[in-house]
Automatic annotation (TrEMBL):
SUPFAM superfamilies, sorted: Acyl-CoA N-acyltransferases (Nat)
InterPro entries linked to this entry: Acyl_CoA_acyltransferase, GNAT_AblB, GNAT_dom
UniProt-recorded name of the protein: Beta-lysine N-acetyltransferase
Domain N-acetyltransferase: 135-281
GO molecular function list: N-acetyltransferase activity
Length: 285
């Protein structure tokens, strides 16, 4: 296990609190991320998470919550950074709300990248990816976990979850995360995953990576298209992604596939060696 994996596994803990709310927290991302909120915890969570963040010295609390709970968080100093309509079971909206515990977390914004994003959104980009006989897109399984981990390790200097760890990937596959890859001459050269929330009826399209030698062939678009077909078969209607603001090509991939911009999470995620801002994009299928 390399140093990166050691750091993530030790620092970024995923655990249940309260009556079953799920959080991820640690120094790696310097934040608490409320991934799933149990309704019974709604009233106490804003204060609980704030106290925990102050105790641990984290500079941001980031929460994914149903719209009805938003006022409870606003009253505790949280602000909305993004929202997706009809996210939970094609009915309830989701709000992404955050509380910044250090002004430094809001400084040095990626202003040029935000301008680039604005221009990108102004120019509507649609179109299905062209099929190519050179690559085959297929579902991946536990036998592929080692290869997937290797691709992630070669692609990302850091990542918010330990996706370079083979055991982490195998556990994810056993818990409703579907992996897909593009093969070239029988070798996997690009991967991505769809992480399903069955109860909420939604899925996060995430963990896209393509080896350098095969970039520029729109493999992410081809994999995304295949993942969408699979999600439809699984009965999942709401899809979303958290894409790096600094990666215009990744944002283009989703915009071409008719995903809608929902907002930007400021200095939210440690990826590729730095804490970066992230865009939320979504699609109903």
């Amino acid at each position: 296990m390399n140093a990166y994996k050691e750091e993530v596994i030790v620092s970024d803990v995923v655990e249940e609190i309260g009556n079953g709310s799920l959080i991820q927290h640690g120094k790696h991302n310097d934040r608490i991320y409320l991934m799933k909120m149990d309704k019974r915890d709604a009233i106490s969570l804003p204060e609980t998470l704030t106290k925990m963040a102050r105790k641990e010295g984290y500079t941001k609390v980031f929460c994914k919550i149903p719209k009805w709970a938003a006022p409870l968080f606003y009253s505790n100093g949280f602000i909305m950074e993004a929202s997706i309509p009809q996210f939970y079971n094609n009915e309830e909206d989701v709000f992404f709300v955050s509380k910044f515990l250090s002004s430094d977390r809001l400084l040095n914004l990626e202003t040029e990248k935000l301008k680039d994003l604005g221009e990108l959104l102004y120019i509507k980009r649609n179109g299905k990816p062209s099929a190519t006989s050179q690559y085959t897109i297929r579902p991946l399984n536990i036998k592929d976990a080692g290869t997937i981990a290797d691709i992630y390790e070669r692609t990302f200097a850091t990542y918010p979850f330990p996706i370079q760890d083979e055991e982490f990937l195998m556990e994810a596959m056993e818990n409703d995360t579907f992996y897909f890859g593009a093969e070239y001459n029988g070798k996997i050269v690009a991967v991505a995953s769809a992480e399903i929330d069955r109860k909420g009826g939604n899925a996060e399209m995430t963990d896209f990576a393509t080896l350098k030698a095969h970039q520029g062939n729109r493999l992410a678009s081809l994999i995304l298209q295949t993942m969408e077909w699979e999600m439809k078969k699984q009965g999942i209607d709401s899809l979303y992604t958290i894409a790096r603001l600094n990666s215009i090509p990744m944002n283009k991939t989703f915009l071409r596939a008719n995903y809608q911009y929902a907002g930007t999470l400021i200095k939210n995620t440690n990826i590729a060696g730095n804490i970066e801002s992230m865009n939320i994009l979504y699609k109903h299928i």
